[in-house]
């Protein structure tokens, strides 16, 4: 058995990357990073089987960066991802790891983004391309993306690309890469089709399989707040004020700088808060932890590395102010609460684009994480008033109030006001810079968090057209003026979107092995149209129909015309009622029924 790797420095990475990792807060490699990085640095092909959230992005990103020649401004690595969200996430991770590599450029390319922007960026040069299969294919066909200098190709979440119907597109791309290059394939599972692709395109790959080490944390209440409509700091202070049984908290952020900034802001708002990060020497670290234990501090803002080993029973809450990079980090974080047999509370801040990680954490911990409703202004006011009353009640039971009662009586007589008005003035003075009533408006409630990561699309707008019911009253009309009825139509599963819809025809159907999910995935990825805006889909033998919102931007329409599903160009155009080659059902009035006729039979 090999001994565990204690440091990224043991993996053969250069000083620039090691410094960037230290600045981010990475200290000890995760299991997949420890095993994959040396293999990829040595140039071997690799199959990595690991769940999302185990740190696999760094497992392939760091070796890529180590081997990049920044002097050559041409694509030297290509990373294929199933969704635009993952492409952006991977590109952002690469950019943060490459902080110490001057001149490095990574470019995400995906459907729904302007071609003009992508073409300008490609013309300037990029060292690593991160993209969805459809858009990468399109650039290769246009010859706007050149892979002649490609050294490494990474397939990220290969099983997800298979599930979304992109595996044929992936093979199309693989066939157009240089003969001599390194290939790394990462997948949570290994279906037969993925195994076949690996056997065909990878050369003597090393195989690494990582089992998630996370476990259920049953004694901890886990909730999340969807970041929306309010600054995270304002939301944090509202939540901390109304949380029941609050004693002390550890708030996790990603960077050392963020610990200091957030600690200063909380201190300015009256909280006893301090930063805990890797820049503190051992003596200062121990002092902060001792203050947290004794009650001199109520809140510590920490990075993952700095918080390791903290065991303070009074920590009632853990707040993930920044969502962690992997599920193991999440479990380690929330393990700081719920100690010594007590119940704990874990609060997770989740931006809409981070929903994939939220769902991954739920699977890893085998517990659903419930949404947290942001406390309203009234909630915060009521809590502050309640606390204030409690303090006043405590003072009322004290001795020696006669002197102060005489002062109130004097003020009342001198100002010709009642004792209640004097008491109100004293209450106003006693707020000590923390008003009992908070100003401002409550933010609008956020849109519901999608249950599936593929629906975590950015909002799509098709102008300022009125949102009105598609059909008013009665049953949904059937297209009885059309003869060609598909043998399967996606109308039970998919509710009718609001607003006017246009019916389009595309050149892929059952004969191409297409399913409804393939069409939905392609449209959502390439045109940036949320799945809820996609109407009924009819599958025929050689073509299909799909309903899309009226007033669709020309850019989205043009992108769909060039989109491929299972390797076949869909050629989107308005449906003109042309019957499908699979046959139509045509009404024969004299015979009082329907007769199946082949297309072209007149």
Automatic annotation (TrEMBL):
Gene Ontology CC terms, in alphabetical order: cytosol; ribosome
BP terms from Gene Ontology: cellular response to cold; ribosomal large subunit assembly; RNA catabolic process
Keywords annotated in UniProt: ATP-binding, Cytoplasm, Helicase, Hydrolase, Nucleotide-binding, RNA-binding, Stress response
Ranges where the Helicase ATP-binding domain occurs: 37-208
Biased composition (Basic and acidic residues): 452-493, 573-593
Matching PANTHER family: ATP-DEPENDENT RNA HELICASE DEAD (PTHR47963:SF8), DEAD-BOX ATP-DEPENDENT RNA HELICASE 47, MITOCHONDRIAL (PTHR47963)
Domain of life from the UniProt record: Bacteria
Protein species of origin: Dechloromonas denitrificans
UniProt enzyme class: hydrolase
Residue ranges of every copy of the Helicase C-terminal domain listed in the record: 234-380
Protein name in UniProt: ATP-dependent RNA helicase DeaD
Localization terms from the record: Cytoplasm
DEAD-box RNA helicase Q domain location: 6-34
Record-linked InterPro entries: CsdA_RRM, DbpA/CsdA_RNA-bd_dom, DEAD/DEAH_box_helicase_dom, DEAD/DEAH_RhlB, DEAD_box_RNA_helicases, DeaD_dimer, DEAD_helicase_DeaD, Helicase_ATP-bd
Principal localisation: cytoplasm
One GO MF term: ATP binding
Gene that encodes the chain: deaD
Documented EC number(s): 3.6.4.13
Function: DEAD-box RNA helicase involved in various cellular processes at low temperature, including ribosome biogenesis, mRNA degradation and translation initiation.
Motif (Q motif): 6-34
Pfam families: DbpA, DEAD, DeaD_dimer, Helicase_C
Catalysed reactions, semicolon-separated: ATP + H2O = ADP + phosphate + H(+)
UniProt entry tagged with the keyword ATP-binding: yes
Family to which this protein belongs: Belongs to the DEAD box helicase family. DeaD/CsdA subfamily.
Region annotation Disordered: where it falls in the sequence: 437-502, 569-602
């Amino acid at each position: 058995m090999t001994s565990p790797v204690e440091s990224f420095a043991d993996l053969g990475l250069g000083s620039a990357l090691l410094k960037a990792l230290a600045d981010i807060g990475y200290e000890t490699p995760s299991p997949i990073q420890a095993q994959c990085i040396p293999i990829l640095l040595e140039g071997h092909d690799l199959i990595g089987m690991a769940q999302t959230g185990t740190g696999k992005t760094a497992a392939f990103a760091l070796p890529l960066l180590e081997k990049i020649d920044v002097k050559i401004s041409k694509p030297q690595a290509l990373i294929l991802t199933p969704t635009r969200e993952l492409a952006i996430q991977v590109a952002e991770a690469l950019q943060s790891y490459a902080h110490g590599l001057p001149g490095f450029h990574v470019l995400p390319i995906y459907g729904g983004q302007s071609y003009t922007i992508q073409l300008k960026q490609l013309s300037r040069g990029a060292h690593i391309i991160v993209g969805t299969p459809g858009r990468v294919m399109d650039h290769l066909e246009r010859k706007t993306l050149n892979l002649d200098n490609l050294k490494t190709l990474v397939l990220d979440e290969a099983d997800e690309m298979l599930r979304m119907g992109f595996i044929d597109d992936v093979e199309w791309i693989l066939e157009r890469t240089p003969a001599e290059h390194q290939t790394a394939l990462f997948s949570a599972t290994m279906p037969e089709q993925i195994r076949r692709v690996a056997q065909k395109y990878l050369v003597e790959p090393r195989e690494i399989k990582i089992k998630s080490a996370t476990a259920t944390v049953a004694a901890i209440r886990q909730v999340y707040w969807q970041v929306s409509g309010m600054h995270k700091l304002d939301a944090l202070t509202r939540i901390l004020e109304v949380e029941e049984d609050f004693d002390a908290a550890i708030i996790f952020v990603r960077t050392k700088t963020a610990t200091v900034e957030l600690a200063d802001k909380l201190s300015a708002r009256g909280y006893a808060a301090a930063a805990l990060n890797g820049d503190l020497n051992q003596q200062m670290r121990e002092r902060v932890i001792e203050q947290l234990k004794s009650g001199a501090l109520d809140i510590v803002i920490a990075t993952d590395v700095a918080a390791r080993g903290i065991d303070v029973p009074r920590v009632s809450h853990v707040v993930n102010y920044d969502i962690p990079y992997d599920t193991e980090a999440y479990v380690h974080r929330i393990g700081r609460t719920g100690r010594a047999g007590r119940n704990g509370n874990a609060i997770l801040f989740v931006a809409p684009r981070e929903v994939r990680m939220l769902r991954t954490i739920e699977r890893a911990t085998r517990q659903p994480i419930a949404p947290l409703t942001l406390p309203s202004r009234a909630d915060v006011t009521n809590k502050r008033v309640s606390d204030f009353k409690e303090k006043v009640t405590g003072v009322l039971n004290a001795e020696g109030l006669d002197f102060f009662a005489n002062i109130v009586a004097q003020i009342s007589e001198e100002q010709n006001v009642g004792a209640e008005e004097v008491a109100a003035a004293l209450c106003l003075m006693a707020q000590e810079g923390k008003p009992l009533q908070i100003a401002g408006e409550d933010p609008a409630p956020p849109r519901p968090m999608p249950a599936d990561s593929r629906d975590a699309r950015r909002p799509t707008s098709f102008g300022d057209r009125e949102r009105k019911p598609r059909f008013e009253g009665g049953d949904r009309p059937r297209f009885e003026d059309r003869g060609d009825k598909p043998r399967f139509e996606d109308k039970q599963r998919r509710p009718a979107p609001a607003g006017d819809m246009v019916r389009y025809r595309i050149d892929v159907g059952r004969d191409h092995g297409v399913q409804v999910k393939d069409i939905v995935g392609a449209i959502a990825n390439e045109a940036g149209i949320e799945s809820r805006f996609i109407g009924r889909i009819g599958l025929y033998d050689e073509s299909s129909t799909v309903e899309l919102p009226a007033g669709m931007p020309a850019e989205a329409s043009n992108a769909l015309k060039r989109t491929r599903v299972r390797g076949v160009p869909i050629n989107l155009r308005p449906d003109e009622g042309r019957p499908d080659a699979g046959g139509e059902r045509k009404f024969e009035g004299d015979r009082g029924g329907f007769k199946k006729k082949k297309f072209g039979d007149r």
